[in-house]
Design brief:
about 200 residues; alpha+beta; VC0802-like; 2 domains; 5 helices; 6 strands; globular
Length: about 200
C-alpha cells in the first residue's frame, strides 16, 4: 500500500486525496488518462512537475517511453561456463550488455539478452555455435517508487493482457529503473503504457 502523503504534499493536495481522475482527462499537462483507467490521485505524489499546484502528476506520466523491442534468446544444455561463453563472445565483439537473465530447468538453460547491437550480437553468437533466436518484448523505464509495478500490472490486467515473463532490477537510491517484459500482446501493452 502506498504511504499516505505527509507535510507540504498533503497540504498542497488537500481534499483531492483519495479522489479519482475522470476518464480521458488529467491534471497533468503531459497527457490524458488512458481510456478505462480511474486512478486515485494519492497513488503517485512523488515527482515534481509543472502541473496543478506543482506536485500533482499521474503514474503513467512517470513512465519513460514504453516501446516494443527485441531480445536475444540463447537456448542450450545447462553446463558449466555457459554464461561465460556467451558473454565472452559479446566482449570480444565490443558489444555492451543492457540486460541479461538466465533460467535453468531439467538440464536445459535459456539466456535472455538485450544489447546495444542485437543483430550483431545474434550473428556473433550464431557464429560461435550458439542456438540464438530473437523475441519481441516491451521495454519501459519506470520510477523507482513504492507500488509502481503494482499499478502498472493492474493496468495491463484491466485490459486483459497477461505477462509471460518480466525482468526488473532496482538499485537503491536510483530514481528510475528499466523494466522488460513479454505480454500476450506487446504492441497493445506498449500503447497502453504510452497512454494511447
Amino acid at each position: 500500500m502506498v504511504p499516505e502523503p505527509v507535510g507540504r504534499f498533503k497540504r498542497r493536495l488537500g481534499g483531492a486525496i483519495g479522489r479519482e481522475w475522470p476518464r480521458g482527462r488529467s491534471a497533468s499537462p503531459r497527457g490524458s488518462v488512458p481510456e478505462g483507467m480511474d486512478v486515485p490521485i494519492d497513488l503517485v505524489l512523488w515527482a515534481p512537475c509543472t502541473g496543478v499546484r506543482g506536485y500533482r502528476t499521474c503514474w503513467w506520466n512517470m513512465l519513460g517511453g514504453a516501446r516494443v523491442t527485441q531480445e536475444l534468446v540463447v537456448s542450450s544444455e545447462d553446463r558449466v561456463g555457459l554464461l561465460a561463453g556467451v558473454t565472452g563472445v559479446l566482449y570480444e565483439m565490443g558489444i555492451n550488455l543492457l540486460a541479461v537473465s538466465v533460467q535453468t530447468e531439467g538440464g536445459a538453460a535459456v539466456v535472455h539478452l538485450t544489447t546495444e547491437a542485437n543483430l550483431y550480437a545474434r550473428d556473433a553468437l550464431r557464429g560461435a555455435g550458439f542456438d540464438v533466436s530473437m523475441r519481441e518484448i516491451v521495454e519501459v523505464e519506470i520510477a523507482h517508487r513504492t507500488g509502481f509495478l503494482c499499478k502498472l500490472t493492474e493496468a495491463l490486467a484491466r485490459k486483459g493482457l497477461t505477462i509471460e515473463d518480466l525482468h526488473l532490477t532496482a538499485v537503491e537510491g536510483c530514481e528510475r529503473t528499466r523494466l522488460q517484459f513479454c505480454a500476450s500482446n506487446n504492441i497493445q501493452a506498449a500503447q497502453l503504457l504510452r497512454g494511447k
